[in-house]
């Protein structure tokens, strides 16, 4: 039986500092294949190459990955400054319309880190360029040194709304997560429903209120050790279940009315 197809949004990358490429993290592909039990396929983040209608028809769900460039502040009505870091307007032009279309259609997606911020902006939220600069906030960025295990180590708790969407998915009101982001949501859009917070009040988990499909997003990186981590595994399992449900609806035979 053919597995559902999950499109994984890529990032621009330079091989040997000269050869342009669209790249995706192996951890993301492994999480989709081994935990969600879906077929992982990389999507070039360039609207010239990947028109929205074809993406929607080609895939049963999407993984909005993390990435070093940030969503351009013009997308949420602000001017760009040096504090906003690097940008990838081509990825913005793929991901933001894709999010809105998936919300409308009920097509599933999971947002991770930058993907969380893409969903937030697509739903009318604003971002702060450096969340650690806000009063009372912690440094959520990746540790500059150390092994991969140390960079992705569990660093703070995330508390969910009692009885909310994430509480039900996780089976727990509070979990421990890694943290590797600089930006964060400041003002949430009307439908971007924050459902989990770090101890300093930084939004860490959200969904789109009123959407007919699976729209979960997290600010941390659940793709790391996804098969074994008790927080990561339920997220990818839920994405896989949603993608299978979408695929079955699309392939169900049409019955003529009597």
Walkthrough of the structure:
The protein is α/β, with parallel strands linked by helices and 258 residues long. The protein has one domain (5-251): 3-Layer(aba) Sandwich (Rossmann fold). 28% of the residues lie in helices and 22% in strands. The protein has helices spanning 26-35, 52-58, 89-105, 114-122, 148-151, 165-170, 232-251; strands at 5-9, 11-15, 19-23, 39-43, 61-64, 109-112, 126-128, 156-160, 174-177, 184-187, 192-197, 203-208, 217-218. Helix 3 crosses helix 4 (114-122). The longest helix has 20 residues, at 232-251. The chain is globular and about 55 Å long. The two termini are 31 Å apart.
Low-pLDDT stretches: none
CATH homology superfamily:
Class I glutamine amidotransferase (GATase) domain
What quaternary form is this?
single chain
**Based on the structure given, which CATH architecture is correct?**
3-Layer(aba) Sandwich
Give the % helix.
Answer: 25-40%
Class from secondary-structure proportions: alpha/beta
Tell me the number of structural domains: 1
Strand content: 15-25%
Distance linking N and C termini: 31 Å
Radius of gyration: 18 Å
Mean pLDDT: 92
CATH fold label: Rossmann fold
Give me the number of helical elements.
Answer: 7
Which outline best applies? globular
The helix/strand order is: EEEHEHEHEHEHEHEEEEEH
How many beta strands in the DSSP annotation? Answer: 13
Q: What is the name of the CATH class?
A: Alpha Beta
Spatial ordering of strands, largest sheet: 4-1-5-6-13-12-11-8-9
Please summarize the sheet with the most strands: 9 strands, mixed
């Amino acid at each position: 039986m053919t597995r559902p197809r999950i499109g994984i949004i890529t990032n621009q990358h330079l091989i040997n500092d000269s050869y342009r490429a669209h790249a995706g993290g192996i951890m993301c592909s492994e999480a989709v294949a081994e935990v969600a039990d879906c077929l992982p396929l990389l999507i070039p983040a360039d609207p010239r190459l990947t028109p929205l209608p074809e993406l929607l028809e080609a895939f049963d769900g999407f993984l909005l990955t993390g990435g070093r460039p940030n969503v351009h502040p013009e997308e949420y009505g602000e001017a760009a400054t040096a504090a906003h870091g690097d940008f990838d307007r081509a990825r913005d032009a793929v991901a933001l319309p894709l999010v809105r279309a998936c919300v409308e259609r009920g097509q599933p997606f999971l947002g991770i880190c930058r993907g969380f911020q893409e969903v937030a902006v697509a739903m009318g939220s604003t971002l702060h360029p450096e969340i650690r600069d806000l009063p009372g906030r912690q440094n959520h960025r990746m540790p500059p040194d150390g092994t991969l295990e140390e960079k992705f180590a569990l660093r703070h708790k995330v508390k969910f709304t009692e009885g909310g969407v994430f509480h039900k998915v996780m089976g727990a009101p509070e979990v421990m997560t890694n943290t590797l982001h600089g930006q964060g949501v400041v003002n949430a859009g009307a439908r971007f429903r924050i459902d989990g917070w770090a101890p300093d009040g930084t939004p860490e988990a959200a969904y789109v209120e009123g959407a007919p499909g699976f729209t979960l997003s997290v600010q941390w990186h659940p793709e790391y050790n996804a098969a074994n981590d008790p927080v990561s595994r339920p997220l990818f399992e839920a994405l896989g279940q949603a993608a299978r449900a979408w695929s079955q609806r699309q392939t169900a035979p049409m019955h003529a009315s009597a």
